[in-house]
Amino acid sequence: MRAMRADRFGGYRDLKSTDIPRPAPADGKLLVRMTAAGVTPLDHTILSGQFPRSTAPLVLGNEGAGVIEGGDTDFPEGTRVAFLGPFGIFENGTYSDYVAVPKELLLPIPDGIDDTTAAGLPVAYLTAYLALANAGFAAGKVVLAPAIGGSVGNAATQLARALGASHSISSTTSHAKAEEAKALGFSEVIDLTAEGLADGVNRISGGQGADIVIDGIGGKILSDALPALATGASVITLGYSAGREATINVTDLIWKAASIKGFLLLTESAAARSAAWSAISGLLVSGKVKPITAKVFALDDAAEALRYLIEERPFGRVVLKI
């Protein structure tokens, strides 16, 4: 069975094509023949040796899509599914021909959504949806989700808009991405080459500020978002691609009676993820949410796909075709 495995963690060159045994599903698991795998910043974190709980050798890939082989009454053979879980972190992942997946992690792919698109949905969209829920989202709220070109930033922006936010605001540090976002219909994107984040939020919201911030990148962006909070705001921080350290002026929280907390998708229950997937699926089928795929690579080009994601910072998801 073909897979892309890292035998040590040091960089892109450590990701090699190799043959590994085809997994035999244990009780409660079903065999998925992979058709596509999402490429995520977490894969890079692990491959660069910055996630100490992961150990080599390891097949990377935290999310993906495929077809059930064998199956049962709940997921008959041929059912198209997406999934995420401990794969590519604590056990072999989705950069592979086959993965044995616990049934409670399987997510039926809606009709009309192709496998390549579906492979890049679970991490970004489940994270965004459940983070919004954790922040107390309701229709009419002002939501800020920085990084319109990133997976979580784009997903949170689309979901908040589709679910009735009064303003669904994002940002970018690239003027070219700001223009691309505008062409794609994102009308509330702050071009950080032209104005500050807080200034942009206050301009768009008419001075109200952000009721909810979904911070998927950390670093200075998190620091810059806090002065734009509305009274009683909720900040969810869940990523650190822009930096693991941020400077916080505590008065931005105290004077606004605001709160800040972390979010980790893998700690959310399977039931919560399933319910969120059902809601997301409805938005996908209706066309209210339209995922963006930046580029598709072959499985054997996984190292280049990961380099492209991290160094080129594309607008949209990067996916491996298997």
Protein described:
- There is one protein chain.
- The protein is globular, with a radius of gyration of 19 Å.
- It is built from ten helices and 16 strands.
- It is α/β, with parallel strands linked by helices and 322 residues long.
Keywords:
single chain, 322 residues, alpha/beta, 7-stranded mixed beta sheet, 6-stranded parallel beta sheet, 10 helices, 16 strands, globular
Main sheet makeup: 7 strands, mixed
Helix-strand sequence: EEEHEEEEEHHEHEHEHEHEHEHEHE
| Rg computed from alpha carbons, rounded to a whole number of angstroms | 19 Å
Low-confidence segments, ≥5 residues, pLDDT <50?
Answer: none
User: How many strands appear in the DSSP assignment?
Assistant: 16
Percentage beta strand: 25-35%
Give the oligomer, counting copies of the same chain as homo and different chains as hetero.
Answer: single chain
- Globally, the shape reads globular
Percentage of residues in helical conformation: 25-40%
- Structural class based on helices, strands and sheet pairing: alpha/beta
* Average predicted confidence as pLDDT: 96
